[in-house]
Amino acid sequence: MPETEMAEAPVKAATGGNILEVRNLQAWYGESHILHGIDFDVKAGEVVTLLGRNGAGKTTTLKSIMGIIGKRSGSIKFNNQEIRGATSDRIARMGIAFCPEERGIFSSLDVRENLLLPPVVRPGGLPLEQIFDLFPNLKERLNSQGTKLSGGEQQMLAIARILRTGASFLMLDEPTEGLAPVIIQQIGHTIARLKKEGFTILLVEQNFRFASTVADRYYVVEHGKIIDGFSNAELAANMDKLHTYLGV
Amino acid sequence: MQALYAQLLVGLINGSFYALLSLGLAVIFGMLNIINFAHGALYMMGAFVAYFLLNLGGINYWWALLLAPIIVGIFGMILERTMLKFLTGLDHLYGLLLTFGIALIVQGVFQNYFGSSGLPYAIPDQLKGGMNLGFMFLPVYRGWVVIFSLVVCLATWFLIEKTRLGAYLRAATENPTLVRAFGINVPRMITLTYGLGVGLAALAGVLSAPINQVRPLMGADLIIVVFAVVVIGGMGSIMGSIITGFALGVIEGLTKYFYPEASNTVVFVLMVLVLLVKPTGLTGRAA
């Protein structure tokens, strides 16, 4: 393994400092300008949620961090290293893992292959037993075709497969979308467990009732900008504003 | 009956080439989304590289079986890196035109130096002669081609369907962006996949050299039938390409025995029927 990667390894231990710093992030899909200057930070060990209406730019923010959006400007620092110009495979190898909104389960792979697909990028990932402990359903369905799973199971598989790679910074894009309340609850418990394990989580959610059960801090995204931010403790005081922002 | 068995054998041999070539086409189409019209020219290059190795370097058939696919595979990877990779996201038509152009250029260059007639390539000593099976006489070399092709096809199937590397390949065929976001260097994988597909074509070229001679247009004649095989089998499935390749070779052989006049058209008639009934091919997935 190259030395530079080793030097970045002890990410989980260093809680408190900013693990991610996004400054004036702009992004385009073809000709359309989606992000108009996103600024926010995530500290190591935190669960931070991006809230906002459909089309506000939440998913685009995650994809820009992951390096999936072709045209972007501004600055994205991960562990004090500029990653804005890097390709997504390099970014993944620095320890960022992404669970997309559409889950991205591969139909030509069985559950086991889906689970083992993302390569281990650094030491410290969860061992398989612990993953099966979090998601017992997956263990029983290892030989099923990936897309034969229920929506909830697919979501669990999509989260499970990024836990064993050693990436300590997880980006989850609407993990509760379209799922039954009991499954949403299970995913909530999982996120709480992961936080305890030392993972840092950047969450995109429309379901802010769910977000409020897991998040430490919130940012509100609107028209491709961060327009507000507050901690969980300030949530009650900001409830009215939040209702206006989200139109709920 | 002797004649029937002989035609069956010819069918199996042609089927071996169809299978090796359509397998490569399917793998390339899956990853690059390119209909590789240069496949026939690269098959021909495999035979020529074997010929050069023997006549210029004194390197025998067995080494050629290994070296020719590697050399032509590297040539293919250079094509991918310098030209094909710029077609990402464009319509299929561009890939078709570009690879067709490459095929014409490569064939033109070889024709310029070697004309259209065939160069001889001797059967290696170890595979000369034949066996009397009781019901027919089997030339050893032909038996070898069928068995070796089958082994290579099944090994490729195993690689793609049963190994971790194959899982990357299948996943990247479905969603390259996400696979890359997991930390896999997908562009490099695409180059290697093209090299693999091209290598299979070159291998078929080496196998064919002692049977069909080495000719600049040997691939051009074959590739049209191979495309029909691919259409019949469907692009989606590896095992489908293998089975369809061998099966159509045999059907062609049988037609030569029962109704020789139709032997050159039977594959295309089948293609039309399959397109009418199941446009995605027998084993293909919907696009």
Which helices and strands occur, and which strands form pairs?
The complex is a heterodimer of chains A (248) and B (287).
Chain A: H1 3-7, E1 18-29, E2 32-43, E3 47-51, H2 58-66, E4 71-78, E5 81-82, H3 88-93, E6 96-99, H4 111-116, H5 128-134, H6 136-140, H7 151-160, E7 169-173, H8 181-196, E8 200-204, H9 208-214, E9 217-222, E10 225-231, H10 239-246
Parallel strand pairs in A: 3-8, 3-9, 6-7, 7-8
Antiparallel strand pairs in A: 1-2, 1-4, 4-5, 9-10
Chain B: H1 2-32, H2 39-57, H3 61-82, H4 92-114, E1 130-132, E2 137-139, H5 140-162, H6 164-174, H7 176-181, H8 186-212, H9 218-233, H10 238-258, H11 266-277
Antiparallel strand pairs in B: 1-2
Helix pairs in contact in B: 1-5, 1-8, 1-9, 1-10, 2-3, 2-4, 2-8, 2-9, 3-8, 5-6, 9-10, 9-11
Provide a compact summary of the structure.
With 248 residues, chain A is of the alpha/beta class. In chain A, 32% of the residues lie in helices and 27% in strands. The relative contact order of chain A is 0.18.
